Predict the structure.
Amino acid sequence: MNADIHNGGPLIRIDEVSKIYHHDKPDEVRALQNISLELFPGEVVALTGPSGSGKSTLLSLIGCMARPTSGTIYLQERRISRLPEAFLARIRRESFGFVFQQYHLLRDVSVLDNLMFPLYPAALPFMVMRERALALLEKFTLSNKQKTKVRQLSGGEQQRVALARALMADPPIIIADEPTAHLDAELSSELLGILTELHAEGRTIIIASHDPVVYRSPLISRRIALRHGNLVDENQAAGAEQ
Amino acid sequence: MILHPGILALLLGSTLILLMLLVAGGVALRILRYWNADSGSATQLQLERQTWLVSTLLKYAFGFQIITLFLFLFTLEEIHPLFVGAMCATGSLNANLVGWLVLLVKIGLVFAAAFWLAINYLDQRTEDTPLVRFKYVTLLLLIPLVALDLWLQWEYFSGLRPQMITSCCGALFSAEGEGVISTLAGLPVEQAIPLFFAVVLLYAILLLASLRWRAMLLRNLLFVVSVLLFFVSLAALVSFLSLYIYQMPSHQCPFDMLQGHYYYIGYPIYLGLFMATLFAMLPGLCRPLATTPSLERELKRSEPTWLRLALFGLILFLVTSCWQMVFGPLILLGY
Amino acid sequence: MIFNFKLLEYSLSSLWRRKEKNIALIIVYALVIATLGSVLLLTHALKTEAVTTLTAAPEIVVQRTQGGRHELIPVTYAETIEGFPGVGKVIPRVWGYYYDSLVKANLTLIGIEGYQEQLELLEGRFPQSPDECVIGSGVAAAFGPQIGDLLVLEDSSKRRSEFRVTGVFHAASNLLTNDLVVLQEAALREFFAMPDGLATDLTVQVYNSREISTIAKKIAYFLPDSRPITREELLHTYDSLFNWRSGMMLAVFASALMAFLILAWDRATGISAEEKREIGILKALGWETSHVLGAKLREALLISLTAFIAGLLLAWLHVFVLGAPLLVPLLKGWSVLFPTFDLPRVVDLYQLTVLACVTILPYLACTLIPAWKAASSDPDDVMRG
């Protein structure tokens, strides 16, 4: 697996982080307020909370897609919150695998290309990338669809493509935003099965979801609740959801 | 005169370069004013994005500048029949002496832009971009130089009168003429050749030593010697190398070798020389700027590549310019 | 290197996915390049033609002026000039213009004695008696006569003269002979009513080409009412003329280029929602701004190069296969009797470089800022949107 997970300390440390959108403007939004959090290697963390609670923002910050307005974020004790964009992109590319709520696949592009394009900047030879992509497609039983354009696939197939894409860089951390939002029960449990497998391989998984099937699953090792941009006591949250 | 298509293309090219630099300069001013690396504010993010715009504008300007330099030389060659007595590009330059200044400024700009891009490259690979202020101040200094280039070209081309009687390289680059260039051309071959190769040898020693040891002194010496190499090589080209290339004891023009009938051999020659000079100057130039550990790291990583590129340039230059001297039928020594 | 190849592959894929827009852009771009390219190709071909013609011209032509106007030159001047060292033969020439009001064409009538070495025949032979003539192919086409027929011309006193055509020209350069009618000198003198001791001009042969200007100066000094014209000066004049015309046309068509650039800018800024989304996704997954920029700029370069090649081909076809029907009236000017000669198919590297600079560089510059704007999008928006 691609990472040097160091033993002991937290994988990700979030220190007094706030995120404000449109700062000092009439439509200012305080998405997160003074959050502090530690995530350890091998955990499967579920972020829960009503919509607008800041789950997606927290995921963005953890996944190096946005920078906090104040506070610091550490990845393996390396301060990443003030890194220039190029460095953040590289970390995203190498350390994280993303599964978005809307999949965010390139609709007019073939399945194979959807897997390969995002990894083009990586220093991997083209043929190596291709082999890896084909292996992943086989794992997710999509080999016969490699040349099909994504818009011609079913919802379940698209989801598998999104998952395969997330695994292309063999990342140690998987981030999933409402992965079961468009799935029925059967597909949801299939997804959880896949995530369990990935966890067994040693990856850290962070899932934002308000689907009880997910956050009540035995896979989850920790639940973190958010409300109005603040962390809420986990037990309280557990009580409220019930 | 100005309505010649090549001249129009040149003026257009230089105008584009100036416009690009002006846009870059505007952004540079904003960056200089508001840059705060520690802030996560929206303004800072915007400024960071704008640094990419400046980088790209400068890369384009550099590329365009090289193209216009060669187009300039090409055009000089193309228009020389309009001047009485002109046999090649040199004649065109002599028809209006501002032309020599244009050439000088263009070459200077190519070097200046290359330096800026090298420093920018180093800086962008660091996490803390410590050279932001330095970069953008020097960028602003490039602008007047580019404006000068455009203005001088205008002065040159508008000052040309066809039918002017001018001297060609035969008169300029011959031993009987007057001026610096003729003096260079008139250098006795028995002295010019050893001088040239002595400088080349010194340069090569310093270059290889710099690859092996990391001493600052070596790099400073290398910087000085590469500048020396540049000028000595140009003198050598005029003084004797061109004679071998053209296989004629009196043809000393440095521009003709860029033409098709000499198989465009001038291009690898000048490219090699340029590479050998530029890449050997970079370590000496960048060392004093490496004031933070991040920059030192990047510099340490890039230096061997630069030095190797300089070595490649030197070999390219020597092989293409001296080939005829070693293997050609013309014999000058003992002449 | 591998990365560059991958980026290039992505750029190609991206261009192809938006092919309707891109093909339309390439077509317009190629047309603009074809227009400018036609101008450059045509002027260069004409210039080459003219230079080829002039290499056969005499080193010096001496005319006589009075009050700034051209006058007939005494044949005795030839003896004076022949006396100068370095001068070979000095031959008086008799020639003049003839305007035919019916065909509305300007012909040039020349006496054979001054020109014999320069001309090649198509078929037939040179005139051997005063009532014979040789005509250029343009004259044959306009007036109709073939070998054996009669050419009828009216002289200054409205007298009809008939000449039997004994040959039709096919010279190395049609530019020279197209509108020519060659007669014997005596016949021509009679036609123009030119007295014996005078000629239209004198051709001077100079042995050493480096002496030409010296001798020209001597002629002007010793024969103050004469005007010596050297071959060099003629070449310069042609050169300047074509340069000027070509440059002027380029300047005129610059407006077409400007309009195109505005279109290009507009198209580049009007990036589609789908494309924005694609860039956002790629950036969210790890593409840096510089990578996206690199891809977009490669797209611009691919478009430029494709349009350039297409435009150049079109220009080549237009000028060399079709004869440049759209441009030629603007460039050639003066004579109605228009030479339909084969343009020499010369394309030189310099012309191509100039064309590339004028058409590709502005396009690249123009698409830079829109490309950067597109590349600078915020990946966070994708996550939130």
